[in-house]
Specification:
The chain is of the alpha/beta class. The protein has one domain: Uracil-DNA Glycosylase, subunit E, CATH 3.40.470. Helices cover about 35% and strands about 15% of the residues. A hairpin with a 5-residue loop joins strand 1 and strand 2.
């Protein structure tokens, strides 16, 4: 993991409309540290993202940018409450969690990026295609993304989540491309005929089914994959309510 520079920010002056000057912060991304995954064994949910943005790298927490909708969707969906209830019911966690002050605070006040590593205790983890910081995920090279898939599979094998939620269609496309290359197949373009948001299941496209079946054969038994829209504030392919419904569907399956 790279180390955070003592002075990762540079400044330069720019003029305002009234003739005054102000300092504009320029961040040198090459000095920003990688963001490590948040993992443990026997996880209930593992969230899979692209790679850390500038704020996530600086703060060393997942989905840290103020405009990212991840934590708003997470809190509104009630996923934490459902995960805790299921872990108590299945015997993974004991009923004393109901007396856990941190947990009570997380549920009543809502979670934010600063809580990502605390959520390991309750069976919720985070990983991504790459730990390297970029301003946007599009700045990761195709080679870099594909190289991240084997490590991603190892993270899933280690954490053995019941549910693995891919946050972004582009990540799922990279996974599909990886398995197409592995099978010596021409890349399968995702379309309304073979792709839908939510839980990944086989359908009527035999070539696409072969990818899904191979992927599931390499995952821990019982792990289900979901694909959700990217939660960046810049992505508006679906409305907030449509995105929230997908998250609520996952909560209902826990």
């Amino acid at each position: 993991m790279s180390k955070l520079s003592r002075n990762p920010k540079k400044t330069r002056q720019s003029s305002t409309s009234k003739g005054r000057t102000r300092k504009r912060v320029i961040i040198d991304r090459t000095t920003l540290p990688d963001l490590r995954p948040s993992l443990s064994t026997q996880m209930t949910i593992l969230f899979i993202g692209d790679n850390p943005g500038v704020q996530s790298s600086i703060q060393q927490h997942h989905y840290a940018h103020h405009s990212n909708l991840f934590w708003k969707l997470f809190n509104r969906s009630g996923i934490l409450e459902r995960v805790v209830a299921e872990r108590i019911k299945s015997g993974i966690a004991n009923s004393q969690l109901s007396d856990d002050k941190l947990l009570c605070d997380l549920i009543t006040q809502g979670c934010s990026a600063k809580d990502d590593f605390d959520l390991i205790t309750y069976g919720i983890g985070f990983t991504g295609l790459s730990p390297r910081c970029t301003t946007t995920a599009s700045q990761l090279t195709s080679k870099e993304k594909l190289a991240g898939i084997p490590r991603l599979l190892k993270d899933i094998e280690f954490s053995k989540p019941k549910h693995a939620a891919v946050i972004g269609k582009a990540i799922w496309e990279t996974i599909v491309k990886y398995y197409c290359l592995k099978l010596g197949m021409k890349f399968i373009k995702l379309s309304k005929d073979n792709f839908k948001w939510g839980k990944v299941e086989v359908g009527s496209d035999e070539r696409y089914n072969s990818i899904i079946e191979l992927l599931y054969s390499q995952l821990p038994s019982g792990t289900a994959i979901y694909v959700f829209p990217n939660t960046s504030g810049l992505v508006a392919s679906l409305s907030f309510q449509e995105k929230l419904q997908l998250w609520q569907n996952l909560a209902g399956n826990i």
